[in-house]
Design a protein that fits this description.
Order of helices and strands: HEEEEEEEEHEEEEEEEEEEEEEEEEEEH
Strand content: 35-45%
Radius of gyration: 41 Å
Number of strands: 26
Number of domains: 3
Number of helices: 3
Helix content: 10-25%
Strand order of the largest sheet: 2-11-10-4-8-7-6
Distance between the termini: 26 Å
CATH topology of the largest domain: Immunoglobulin-like
CATH class of the largest domain: Mainly Beta
Shape: elongated
Structural class: alpha+beta
Length: 413
């Protein structure tokens, strides 16, 4: 009941409508409150929001597997990791690569011995993010290893020298290792073959650099190995007569189209001829090849370079990116617990009599057993009044709204 409210017509309709509007808002607020009480009571008296955590000390060691490598080689980054028993599904830890390295993998799973995924890894912009799965929720002492291949960033390394490389964990902890990177000197008196991934594990670029001129013409016959198909529209031809102290070409320029001809090209083989090769000029050709069929661990390519009366065969290979890892943990054991059964003796109520006009009437003397539902009964009793109060608030608010709408219609008449 709301005291002081009259449902008779008002002599001041404007003020009455304002009052009715305010009253309606208050009733709606009461109804909303009642509904909130019911919902919160029914669905566990609250909502707990879960959030993932970043684990700062998960990575315990990082190093480069190879002690030395050629500047064009791939190297392996090896990681040891372990998390505390408080770690949970969705928690993460990250590893940022040094500027000297570029990751060649983009993602992989860390598996337990029985094949269950313990964590997943995703590498974006040379930052590896590891995310725990539900395995961490059901196991203790979760730990493992991870590894992935990387290539050298040619603009950040020193040739024929030890290069320190520093990895950063979660932007805080650092691990430093060292790798010797050799360069050697390219002999421009010989032809050479090379390759690199333009789209990791999907599309490769194969290159040939012919022996330096002069030559009336140079013919290159390039053949891809199993698992790849050439893209004949990708052929590019360039040249230079300058190189630095380690033989790298400098001031490279595109060869004009009237100097070369693609004699033939299929998915397996390309034949290219370049005429009028100048003194010390080195012809360089590129062609792309796409991965086809089932993935291989390594892809190969070879070329026969015919310059004047000389001919040489050069070959190269590209390993597929290598990445993976493992993990494991202990399944916690819980000692079984037993609860002693409890019994409650039934109680009896003394029979009572009630006087009537016809005489005393005996009431039932049947024993009344006490409830033995334990905690469940207590929980029910504590929740029910709250829910009932909420429902009453909803019902009362709804009734008042109905009466108010009827009064408003009557006023309008």
């Amino acid at each position: 009941m709301i005291s002081g409210i009259s449902f008779r017509g008002s002599a001041e309709p404007t003020n009455g409508r304002i009052f009715e509007k305010e009253l309606t808002m208050r009733i709606l607020a009461a109804v909303a409150t009642g509904l909130s009480v019911v919902l919160v009571t029914v669905f566990g008296l609250g909502v707990v929001m879960a959030s993932a955590d970043q684990i700062d000390d998960a990575i315990t060691n990082v190093q480069v597997r190879e002690d030395s490598a050629d500047r064009w080689d791939s190297v392996h980054v090896d990681i040891d990791w372990a998390v505390s028993d408080s770690a949970a599904s969705g928690d993460t830890f990250t590893l940022t690569l040094p500027p000297e390295l570029d990751a060649t993998a983009d993602g992989f799973d860390l598996k337990s011995p029985d094949g269950e995924t313990v964590a997943t890894a995703e590498i974006v912009d040379d930052v590896a993010t590891f995310t725990l799965t539900g395995y961490a929720d059901s196991h203790d002492n979760v730990a493992g290893t991870a590894y992935f291949t990387s290539k050298f960033n040619q603009d950040e390394i020193d040739f024929n020298a030890d290069n320190p490389v520093t990895f950063t964990v979660n932007d805080t902890t650092e691990f430093t290792d060292s790798v010797y990177i050799g360069a050697g000197v390219i002999d421009r008196g010989k032809s050479r073959k090379f390759g690199f991934w333009s789209e990791q594990d999907e599309r490769a670029m194969w290159g040939v650099e012919a022996v330096k001129g002069p030559w009336p013409s140079v013919t290159i016959t390039d053949t891809v190995g199993a698992g790849m198909a050439m893209d004949c529209d990708s052929v590019a031809v360039e040249s230079s007569a300058e190189w630095n102290e380690v033989g790298e070409l400098q001031n490279v320029q595109a060869v004009s189209a009237d100097r070369y001809e693609v004699v033939s090209c299929t998915a397996d083989e390309l034949v290219l001829r370049v005429d009028d090769v100048a003194q010390d000029e080195v012809i360089r050709m590129y062609v792309a090849a796409d991965v086809s069929g089932d993935p291989l661990d390594e892809y190969t390519n070879k070329a026969v370079v015919a310059a004047g009366s000389e001919s040489a065969t050069v070959s190269g290979s590209l390993p597929r990116s290598d990445a993976g890892g493992d993990g494991g943990g202990d399944t916690p054991t819980t000692e079984p617990t037993t609860t002693e059964p409890t019994t409650t003796e039934p109680t009896t109520t003394e029979p009572t009599t009630t006087a009537t006009e016809d005489g005393p009437v005996a009431e039932s003397d049947t024993p009344t057993p006490m409830s033995s539902s334990g905690d469940l009964a207590v929980t029910g009793l504590s929740v029910a009044p709250v829910a009932i109060i909420g429902l009453l608030a909803v019902a009362t608010g709804g009734g008042l709204l109905l009466l108010l709408r009827r009064r408003t219609r009557a006023d309008r008449r």
